[in-house]
Structures
1.
Amino acid sequence: MNQIMLERTVAPQPGLAATGAVLTIDLGALRENYRRLQSRLSPARAAGVIKADGYGLGAARIARALMAEGCDTFFVAHVSEGIELRPALGTGPAIHILNGIPPGAEPDAAAAGLTPVLNSSGQLAAWRDMARRLARKLPATLQVDSGMSRLGMTPGEVDAVAADPRAFDGLDLKLVMSHLACADEPEHPANEAQRLAFEELRAKLPPAPAALANSSGIFLGKPYHYDLARPGAALYGINPTPGRDNPMLPVVRLEAKIIQTRLLDEGAGVGYGHTYSVSGKLRAATLSLGYADGWHRRGAAAAFVGGVRLPFIGRVSMDSIIVDISAVPEGRLKEGDLVELIGPSQSVDDVAELTGTIGYEVLTSLGHRFHRRYLG
Ligand SMILES: *Cc1c(COP(=O)(O)O)cnc(C)c1O
């Protein structure tokens, strides 16, 4: 009964004709990115970080594509994300919960077979307690704070846990992990300081596989690889080596439809606040995508068609953007045509730079009104 009601409330994927924009996710490129990271890491293993719905690209689809490459370990942020993903992944793969378990969520986490990242001695005690109540071993990951000051046990807590012979009763310690604060700056002294702190902390704990590197951490070299790395961004085509050539393939393409084209006369005010006014004559097109679709209102940007730049004019609206199409021959662009916002002419990282943010935020901001196309 519940199942039937659920299925009825899940809206069908809107067709291209009914939507204003198309988001194309190249699962073949994602898989190639996984292989590239895996070959750089070998014999260490690459997990898949698929929090925030796989950085906005669809966690279940992403996970299944990575599983086809042999990935059997996934990370999400919330217990709710893990519960939602478990049916899509089956019982085999490990799903680690980076934010740990909030008090009271232990039974649901255990029932879904999730592996919480225990970030404090309180979380450790609660999870141990859950194992005792269920009278079975529960998987656990322990995070230590090697210097980011965000999550994980402090050195003092690690000492206390290390001194308690019953600390891990009923738990199967799958992983000891920490997270780098400055991995995208290879020369930053914090990287080596964190690695050394991690060494010291994990030596006090029961032997378990270790994990330190995110995407950028993988490119810091072998000493950072340990047994498992946790790439997210690089899988999705974000450059893990800022300032150097991107070693990953692009995964995302975003195209918006032209709603309408028009010829604007000298002096015409364009968009909200008339922040732009036309000098000379100008051909404009209005695109069917706006800040409600996750395109940041701040910062200038442009669309592209066949490599030709179509600068934004005026403000980004909630559902639309006006662009100058004078650079393409008259009549070439018409209603319903698609123009590129993310793709070969403008990468996710380019968009991030233009809008004053990072590729992570560009992807996770992408809205839910697109027609989504999965390739590969
Ligand atoms: C998000 C996250 C990752 C993945 O980081 P990327 O930079 O996207 O590769 C890895 N580890 C932790 C703890 C995270 O929070």
2.
Amino acid sequence: MSDSLWPSTGFGAMLALMSDLTGTYAHPPVLGVDWSEWTALNASIGGQLRLSTPFELPCFASFEGHALPPDSAACAAVQANYTDAPFRVAQFGAAMNAQWETCQSTGAKCLLDDANPSSPAAYQDQNCDIGNIAPLHIDVRAAEHVQAAYEFSSKHGVRLSVKNTGHDYAGRSSGHNTLGLWVSTLNKDLMAFSDAFVPEQCDGSHKAITIGAGVKMEDMYAFADKHNVTAIGGYHRTVATGYFLGGGHSVLSTVYGLGADRVVQIKVVTPDGKYRTVNKCQDSDLFWALRGGGGSAFGVVTELTVTVEPQLTIQAAVVAFPPSPSTLTAWYKLMADNALEWSNAGWGIHLVPGSFVAVNPRLDNAAASKAMQGAVDLANAQGGTAVVDELPSFYEFFTKYVVATENPVGPEVLPSSRLLSNSLFATESGKASLLAAIAQVPSALPIVIVASNPNPALFAYEEGSTSFTPAWRDSAWHFLIGAGFAYNSTLADRQQMYTLASQLMQPFRELTPGSGAYFNEADVYEPNHEQSFWGSNYAKLAEVKKKYDPNHIMDCWQCVGWKGASDPLFTCYVQV
Ligand SMILES: Cc1cc2nc3c(=O)[nH]c(=O)nc-3n(C[C@H](O)[C@H](O)[C@H](O)COP(=O)(O)OP(=O)(O)OC[C@H]3O[C@@H](n4cnc5c(N)ncnc54)[C@H](O)[C@@H]3O)c2cc1C
Ligand SMILES: *[C@@H]1O[C@H](CO)[C@@H](O)[C@H](O)[C@H]1NC(C)=O
Ligand SMILES: *[C@@H]1O[C@H](CO)[C@@H](O)[C@H](O)[C@H]1NC(C)=O
Ligand SMILES: *[C@@H]1O[C@H](CO)[C@@H](O)[C@H](O)[C@H]1NC(C)=O
Ligand SMILES: *[C@@H]1O[C@H](CO)[C@@H](O)[C@H](O)[C@H]1NC(C)=O
């Protein structure tokens, strides 16, 4: 397969041709495949094949080197909504972390300035480049569309990528020179509640909801609330399927497990073209792999069913104070000293320097206030604010404390992270080493601590039922550092930042030998990623990959079966 005509020269030319409706032109091949083949594919999938463009394109006067008139009204809408998650989710040519729209190794891009989206410096006299966005995509509405894509891929050697909401921190939902499968509207209205859901061919029933691939967290939560139950999911409105496939932590995970723990059935189109319903009684090896194996490595999921909990009364301690170096030292010490006790009491905490939100579904308000008194006192002594709020449901908590305080998306964010083992918190010397390592993190880089890892004393999981690293169950903290660079970074800036993010995590890796990291929120260049993301589960995961995707139709960055950074699929990743 040759990709020489695309996107470097073919794309802009083709767009110009497409806008000429006489239809008499011979289209150039796309991704090395005759246009007639694409037309046939399009016809076979009910006309769901789409040309992709970066969503910033309306601001630019040139695309792929070809003049194209800007559209100032459309540009103004993009500028006004540049950091809005639902706006980005609705566009194929957008990613939450904008660097994944771009070809980071070459610098080819089509970005606005996320710090000031109205700044014309980003787009005036600049060319808009397709970058790392899949140049063509299928707006997938049915399993048959995925089957057609697999067949097309096998026949023509065109590589595939799968995009849902575009949250992936390692760019797995972008795909330079791939045919994209966009699943963001696939079954987006499918939400079904069952008091007694029985997985096919299985015994035993679950109180559960079934959600389509395109269902976002905010819709799932609202739906569950309407049925007077609680769905366990992520701390953001628009995260979708990839959350469950990679693990999925919730602020309720301490008591109710990870997202993947709660999946009881999945419908998936595997690369052999079969549309399967998998659970612990049917294709149980694949079902297990999908519960934590991560990304699109095993196929395209059309829907999944997750167990729900009763409506819960939530205690939320919301504490904030102006951080200074000395109070932060005391703050982290308080957090580390209480980590195991708080986990055992069922707290789930999102913590950043100078504030946290701590959630508990088991305590009453008096007990919750007592448990959090130390944190409240520390904040109050600094002139901060602190409440221990009781909410009648998780949905009310989510609306009041998550949606209302959601970070903007759009900046070029890159995390690195480590699951910090319980044993580190069990001794004074362990805690002292941890606090010393935290003190070394440059204050310009945000630290995020997610202290809501599934606690086996509270959440009775079935041994061997999931494939994410077992380290999750023995780690009080999922510890993250967030680095970033500017929209107009140089290649050297990017290399330096990825390298720095990776290096800054090294002391935490050394403090926790044998532990791991969270697939969905990891260092993009995670060292020894197979051990890190999956631990003792990796060998079996690799077997499952071989069985269901022997020809590597569904590869993605640091996914199961990854062949390495030299795969041409990854030419837009920078070398570090
Ligand atoms: C702002 C923000 C907040 C977040 N909050 C949380 C949180 O609270 N808890 C948490 O655990 N994680 C969180 N994450 C991380 C999140 O879980 C991952 O980014 C995850 O990959 C998102 O999945 P997605 O489907 O929404 O996104 P996408 O980027 O579209 O997809 C992610 C991966 O899943 C694959 N994929 C998606 N849908 C399908 C499908 N139907 N079939 C097959 N493969 C599919 C994609 O190919 C890709 O590999 C957050 C991320 C961001 C950016
Ligand atoms: C696919 O077909 C539909 C319906 O005819 C059409 O609107 C769309 O533009 C076609 N896609 C491409 C990439 O030509
Ligand atoms: C985007 O921004 C404009 C202007 O502020 C606003 O009117 C519009 O509702 C926003 N959302 C979408 C989806 O365009
Ligand atoms: C909702 O669920 C709660 C907890 O199970 C129960 O106490 C309450 O009666 C239910 N409300 C309705 C309207 O069914
Ligand atoms: C990037 O953009 C900022 C803001 O417009 C500008 O100040 C800076 O000089 C630019 N940097 C480069 C390398 O072009």
